[in-house]
């Protein structure tokens, strides 16, 4: 029975993951922000649905072992898991991240998009393969960590499944020969032959060679083949092991702690009360400084010292408070006093975030706007909404905090990623009279329209020459010209550069 399971899994996943690995490599090789990233997101979702356990169970009219052992998941239809409730949010958000990626040239945004895509994919797999109706944020994070490490433990699954597959095929008494081996043999023979024949034809006809170069770009260069192979192997094992984990894992039922399982609230009342006293003292000092001192810095203290001595520490305390309130709500029994103390900590957190934002705004006014400074303000905004959700959870136990926080965070981040932060940075710094032209040259192509429409900036020959040279060099390295790397932001900047030279 075990061999049969391996045989079936290999027959399903091996061709699907092999095609996906080749597609992944084609889309992402030296191309993290081209239009093909959107197609890769769509292809990833397609692979997820083609290999989903629930879909096969629905088609066959029976539930597999994973669904039998994950009650009450068998009562939830696969189609409802995708479209019903919040299921549609995951694929829509993933596709929007794909669109955002080929619309921006900002490296930090592109990196964050890739990370968000991976996390959303795992959460979506969790949703499709288990009952998440009563799961909280801790359950999701646990499942996320288990999925990452559990997939690594299945690193040898492709080889074990292949051995089981061929063992069963060999023992088949029907006498029929399968198509897998002859097709594989044909592919192995074709690869070296095509390499030699293509090289000869390319040297014989320049038009044919240029066509191949424009179609495949640098991927045809022999020196790049090892890295291409590594990417393909990584994609194959990541997809095969990840899907295998979710097809094998017997998820336990999850849910909130029952009241009799929660701890006595006296301990929580003690430490939250002491923490709240410290916060009241700190907030009082801040209020006295900001109101009575009118925001004037202490003598001998610069803006840089002031913000670095306080901003990031207050941001860290705000995150600790968020986690602290969530843990207390989940672990300790409810009582009015504890709820009041947690509400007090939440209000104190808002005060600290306001102080943090005020310090960062002072810093930006003195030292201009950068991506990091803009991003941390965005993080503060997200934290403020998350803390509001935590406060609701304290007084309403049935509030679905994880879905609220996921929808809120992803939605706000999508707005941030589509907003082209570098354009905001350029607009603010130019209006503030910043003359750091070297820094302007490090901004992505997202900022190009702002610079080219600024008459004062472009009227100076030195500024114009320095910026256009830096932009041209950036576009030359990032945009080799093949269709895979098409990026809306870089295409717009390239057009502006041609018009203004």
Give a description of the structure:
By secondary structure, this protein is mostly helical. It has 3 domains: 2-171 and 222-248, no CATH class; 259-396, no CATH class; 422-499, no CATH class. 75% of the residues lie in helices and 0% in strands. It is built from 23 helices and no strands. It has helices at 2-28, 36-50, 53-60, 65-68, 78-83, 89-101, 107-129, 137-153, 157-170, 180-204, 206-216, 225-248, 266-292, 303-331, 336-367, 371-395, 401-418, 421-431, 437-442, 448-453, 455-459, 461-478, 488-499.
State the main characteristics:
501 residues, mainly alpha, 23 helices
| Unreliable stretches | 54-76, 250-259
**What is the strand content?**
under 5%
- Helix proportion range: over 70%
Distance between the termini: 71 Å
**Gyration radius, rounded:** 28 Å
Number of helices, where a helix is a run of at least 4 consecutive DSSP H or I residues = 23
Mean pLDDT: 77
Largest sheet, described in full? none
Number of strands: 0
What coarse outline follows from CA principal-axis ratios? flat
- What is the N-to-C order of secondary-structure elements (H for helix, E for strand)? HHHHHHHHHHHHHHHHHHHHHHH
Q: What structural class results from the helix and strand content? A: mainly alpha
Tally of individual domains: 3
Please write out the topology.
Layout: H1 2-28, H2 36-50, H3 53-60, H4 65-68, H5 78-83, H6 89-101, H7 107-129, H8 137-153, H9 157-170, H10 180-204, H11 206-216, H12 225-248, H13 266-292, H14 303-331, H15 336-367, H16 371-395, H17 401-418, H18 421-431, H19 437-442, H20 448-453, H21 455-459, H22 461-478, H23 488-499
Helix pairs in contact: 1-2, 1-9, 1-12, 2-6, 6-7, 6-17, 7-8, 8-12, 10-11, 13-15, 14-15, 14-16, 15-16, 16-17, 22-23
